[in-house]
Amino acid sequence: MVFKNISYFLILLLTACCSYPVLAQDNTQPNGGNGPYQLIFPKDAEWNTLEEGKEINFHLQVRGGKSDSTRYSITSGWRKDMKFDSTGHFVWTPSYEMADRINTVKLLPIVFEATNQAGETVSQQIAFKILHVNRAPEVDELKPFYVQYKTQNTYQIDMNSVRDADGDPVVFIPILEGMPQAMRMTASGEITWDPSTTQFSLLKKGPRYIEFFVEDQPSKARTKGRLKLDVTQMDLEPDFKIVPQNQLVRSKENNRINLKFTLSDPNGDDDIATFDFVSENKNVPKSALVKNAPTSYEFIWEPGYEFVKDPFDSLAFNVTFYVLDKEQNKKERTLRFLIENTVNEAERDAYVYGLYRGGLVNAWGLLEQMKEKEGELKRAYGRAKKGKRSRSLVNASLGATTGLAPVIAKSSVETRGYITTLGGTTVATLGTLEATEVIGKSTNGLLDRFNYVMQKKNELQNKGDVFAREYAQKSARRSPDFIRRLDEFKALMNLSGLVALELDANWENKKAAGYDEKKVDAAIKKAFKDFMPLEKDE
């Protein structure tokens, strides 16, 4: 009966002890009362060095003391996840939050205490050394990577689906053997891929998977992840690119505008139905849009010189290009065209050439007229010299006849008088006529006019040679000085001495009237050797 009461008392005591936060127990030592009272811990080397997530399990014992009934307790450092049962059994698994990758070691001091029934108490502090243990990253199932055709597809791995229990930074490492060609994966988990026609066709037949590693730093622990690739299930609108990529197309009349278009559709090129444009200006022809291939177009247009009407300096309007797919999804872009008014260089070159050639034609004609006048004055000068000699001979003959009249008409006084009278009157008359130069021309005057014509002809020839040489080229005639020099050249031909030259204002160049254009050009080049006719390709 006594033993039953004792047993019941022990059960109540153990129950009360187990209800405390710090567990204690009575332990009867076989050697109680022998030696000093002390705690006995495991004898293994570095038994108190623990790894996160690894359990420690040992029995706490005492030695010595005056009583063999001992009560154990933890007076400092106790944690909720520790277990200290009635037999002195200590069990604890350090959590992974105890240390981290920066502070890889953490010390946790725990004070163990033992008290026996004799009132003896002993305590000892044990510093547990907790070592950080790295855990590999974790990868959940990822959202599929839906790929579009002929598009730089970009996929960012969701970081909410990738985590590291230790809070370590992670990087993504591609497994190149299983990745499609031209696919790229960055260390931050961004995947880019522009599938080729063949790759997209294979993907349309069925999805495929790629694998990669998630690696934490700096421990380099890896976990393999998997990503599903599939074609997009959405009916997306087509798109197109323009080269050059300018919103404003600025050009001039008679300049060619060339735009290149590349079409694409996320659902495949065979889904493209129409590519066209609408212009605010109706003078832009539809034929300007040229189809090179189903996904390649060009806009080739050359606005003529009459596109911008005078007096406007420029003309602006919008042109909207659009692409449609078979489901009538539409993508459009509007470009602003600005066409500037410009001079028709070909027409202007032809016009100034006409002025250049016309000036030389006039000079050539005037030279021809002067040559005719030169010959005329030369012949008149010869006749004048010949007429003066004839008058001198007649004068001398009549004078001699008058002097010989008495000899000639010895028998007839009346006849002798007639001879003297007529001969003297004739000599006097001829002398008067010679003095007044009514008969024939003055040799001095003719010679002066001849010399003047020669002077002007040579001057015109020299100035014409210089003008023909200086403005033989098209670029020289475009200079601002051309018109001024042409006026100076024409002023030279408006000779103030035309009256003195006795040139006919109504004179026409018969050679110019009878020749065709090529023959006239040849005649001008013969007169002015540096003259350059306008080529047909100019």
Structural features, described:
It is built from eleven helices and 26 strands. The protein is α+β, with helices and mostly antiparallel strands. The protein folds into four domains: 130 residues, Immunoglobulin-like (Sandwich), CATH 2.60.40; 94 residues, Sandwich (Immunoglobulin-like), CATH 2.60.40.10; 102 residues, Immunoglobulin-like (Sandwich), CATH 2.60.40.10; 181 residues. The protein has a four-stranded mixed beta sheet, with no helix packed on it. The protein is rod-shaped, with a radius of gyration of 63 Å.
Helix share, percent: 25-40%
Largest sheet: 4 strands, mixed
Widest beta sheet: strand line-up: 2-9-8-5
Proportion in β-strands: 25-35%
Number of strands: 26
Inertia-based shape? rod-shaped
Oligomer: single chain
Domain module count = 4
Structural class: alpha+beta
Average the pLDDT over all residues and give the rounded result.
81
Report how far the terminal alpha carbons are from each other: 140 Å
How many alpha or pi helices? 11
Unreliable segments of 5+ consecutive residues: 1-32, 435-440
Cα-atom Rg, whole angstroms? 63 Å
Features:
single chain; 538 residues; alpha+beta; Immunoglobulin-like; four-stranded mixed sheet; disordered N terminus
In short:
Helix content is 33%, strand content 28%. The chain is of the alpha+beta class and 538 residues long.
Q: What is the topology?
A:
Layout (H helix, E strand, L loop, with lengths): L1 H17 L19 E3 L8 E3 L4 E4 L1 E3 L6 E7 L6 E2 L4 E4 L12 E12 L4 E11 L6 E2 L5 E3 L5 E4 L5 E2 L6 E5 L9 E2 L4 E4 L3 H9 L2 E9 L5 E10 L7 E5 L4 E5 L4 E8 L7 E8 L9 E5 L2 E6 L12 E12 L4 E11 L4 H59 L1 H4 L4 H24 L6 H28 L3 H4 L3 H13 L4 H4 L8 H5 L2 H11 L11
Parallel strand pairs: 2-9, 11-18, 20-26
Antiparallel strand pairs: 1-4, 3-7, 5-8, 6-7, 8-9, 10-13, 12-16, 14-17, 15-16, 17-18, 19-21, 21-24, 22-25, 23-24, 25-26
